[in-house]
Amino acid sequence: MSFELLSEPIRKYIRDKRWEELRPIQAAAIARILTTDNNYILASKTASGKTEAAFLPILSTVNFNESGVQVLYISPLIALINDQFLRIEELCKYLEVPVVKWHGEANKSQKNKLLIDPKGIVLITPESLEAMFVNNSYHVRHLFSSLKFMVIDEIHSFIGTDRGIQLMSIISRLNDNSSSPSRIIGLSATIGDFEEAKKFTGRYDETKVLLDKTTNKVQCYFKYFTSDKSELPLDILKDIYLETLNNNVLIFPNSRGKVEEIAVKLKKISERVGKYQNYFSHHSSIDKDVREYIEFFAKNNKRENFTIACTSTLELGIDIGSVDKVIQIDATHSIASLIQRIGRSGRKKDASSKLILYSTNSWSLLQSTATWLLYMDGFLEPPLSVKKPYDILIHQILSIVKEGTGISINNLIKKIEKNSAFINISVEEIKELISYSIENKIIEKIGSEIIMGIEGEKIVNNRNFYSVFKTENNFKVINSGNTIGELPFSPQIQVEENIFLAARVWKIKTINFKSHRIEVCPATDGKKPKFFGTGGEVHSQIRKKMLEILTSNENYEFLDIASYEELELLRKKFKVFNLNPNTENRPVSIKGIQLTWYTFAGSRINRTLELLFEIAGIPYSMDKQESTFQLQTTDLKWNNLTHILFNSMENIDQQLLCFLEKHPSIIEFSKWSFLLPKKYQIYILKQKYYDFESTANYLKSIKLVVSHNQPY
Length: 712
Hints:
By secondary structure, the chain is α/β, with parallel strands linked by helices. Helix content is 41%, strand content 19%.
């Protein structure tokens, strides 16, 4: 039935491709998109044909003879645009519909051709849309005034993020420039909250979710190798080498440093045993051309196997062909990330996804087990919901003012009022932010007109303005004139140090701080290389599951013998607390004057507890992996600890103001908060960085269970 709804050119495409049948998400999407006017979120497993599910019906219903771009495909990654371009272009050949990539690396002649005769489909990132609004607002009206559809790929990567709020605002502004609102089709394999996804379109009641619940069978194996050093032990590398031999494999560690270490050392093992294998590293610090070569090789080389050690750069839907198995080194920080990584294997029809989870310490093993069990239970972290994103609003105010080279105050307020991204921000608050910006010469008031101010011009004329996420202070790494990639600069990077990059070891010869360049040569001295990475956020539900596992006697069949023995050892160490399963008990170990509190709380609660310790004036140290605080019992009465911390939340806004004045860098996670009055900065801290409500509930509900026998 769905097939018959499609236009004849699209039916011919399907016949020429020799598809035996439409996939479930495709059949459902065709039927709904072609027979209703709703927006749709297409939620289906990785490699289930979501792109075609969106474009088959869109291409069948849109009249591409009309002037103007008819369809906008919005992607979180330029690499994903480049990948999807070929796929969408092939589809569109059957209708002779032009497809144009529009981003900083795209062909200028194709862009110019589109500007002369706007039509067809454009593939773009939110930042390129922002740049168009700021620099060439005429192009927005010229290209997109007849827009019929917006397809948002990997929509989950936007929901609950600053970038997502920016995109919501841009969608509203695009609709303001269009004769009628565009229909939105969102694509995702991992959505934790469908209500938030529906709100994202700006038209909640007109947005429906099509959920394909079919999943691949996952073969999961746990392996444990003890490591008491920062580098991976040789035994684990040998085991990984055997797992990768004669297979196509993706290896996901949790940092770029580990990516490089694994790629280099596996390549060395391969060279020593004489078994040739293509080992690569893939992450955001590697040069774009090198990454694209790796992706091309993986997708097109059918004769040779490959192994790519990578970060989240290969989590999203970039097509690299068939992957036999996925290896995760130590626990993922989120279940959403685990799902994306699992989905990279088992893409062939009726094939199983194969996942191997390696752990190098007991806490990583415990977290991996908790994450896997929650995945099996169907839990997925909900996105962060910020009701009043003042920091993105101030950015968009500047963008709107620049877009029109001036605007009346009333029109500016009206535009913001009807923008779905800022629906919870009052008119009084909008006026206050406008007044504050005028006082600080960010914008200037001339009569009833607002124009860009002296300080505002400096901000919006910088290329850095188009994005709302923080970028690293990167230095370009060069060898003999060839760009290898980039490194986030840190004091540890020094001349004569060795670094990992692009699956090789390099020695730093010179560092040019003015041009942000590091000159390197191949390292041959065997000196330990350096590379630096950052951690991720862990949800409270994962930590609670870890505690539940510790208090359980269950033997999980997916654990190998070494993993089982290590888990049992950890359980034995915590038996001294006599913890009851499924309670809010939290263990506290006291040995001499040293107190260790195992919070088993998520990252945001732990971060809030850190602040409360600061406010209470209690010295502490923290282990983020083990979710522990170490204190001296001489500094407090331990049995009053939760009350002390709870009471520290009194007058928290004033406390935050004092803390912010002492530590102004604390707000730097929010790129545009520096443009806000202090009270709005405090709101951003409370909503995006800390979690006082959850922390208060946590402190009220938990009971500290003390043992004077250290569990180590």
